[in-house]
Design a protein that fits this description.
alpha/beta, 5 strands, 43% helix, Rossmann fold, single chain, 16% strand
Length: 146
């Protein structure tokens, strides 16, 4: 598994090199043919067509993490919709980048705490509304605890 950082100019941030010394850098103009199945592509949102690139890479079996200078919930949701496994700040600390890589390469999803809270909260509310009128699944358990 290799790490590849795709940026507008192919420039590598020092924190990226610190986290992944063997990582390669690819400019937006270069093709992504060197990125293979099982590799991790770190794609910066300053590239105009980043959502299309995420979809292309994900379809090829590449684990994609989208990096943004200004984290935004809508942007993160678009990244995940296109097949990204992670969404993080471009200037995250090397230790955070290493954690992101560990999570996404083990089939996990990496999202910011605020977005994760919203998604879980929305899912909980949807389940509650769906179950309105149905007997609570936790009622027998709660009865035993009292």
């Amino acid at each position: 598994m290799k790490h590849h950082f795709i940026t507008t100019d192919g420039d590598m941030k020092a924190r990226w090199v610190e986290a992944f010394p063997e990582a390669s850098s690819i400019s937006a103009e270069q093709g992504s043919d060197a990125i293979g199945t099982g590799d991790v592509a770190w794609l910066v949102t300053t590239i105009d067509d980043w959502p299309l690139r995420v979809g292309d890479l994900a379809q090829r079996g590449v684990t994609v993490v989208v990096l943004s200078y200004s984290a935004d919930d809508q942007e993160a949701l678009l990244a995940f919709e296109q097949g990204a496994r992670g969404y993080a700040h471009t200037l995250a600390a090397p230790e955070v980048l290493e954690q992101v890589a560990l999570v996404v390469t083990n089939q996990g999803i990496w999202a910011g705490q605020a977005l994760l809270s919203k998604v879980l909260g929305g899912s909980f509310q949807a389940l509650q509304q769906r179950r309105a009128g149905e007997p609570s699944l936790s009622a027998p358990l709660l009865a035993q605890l009292t």
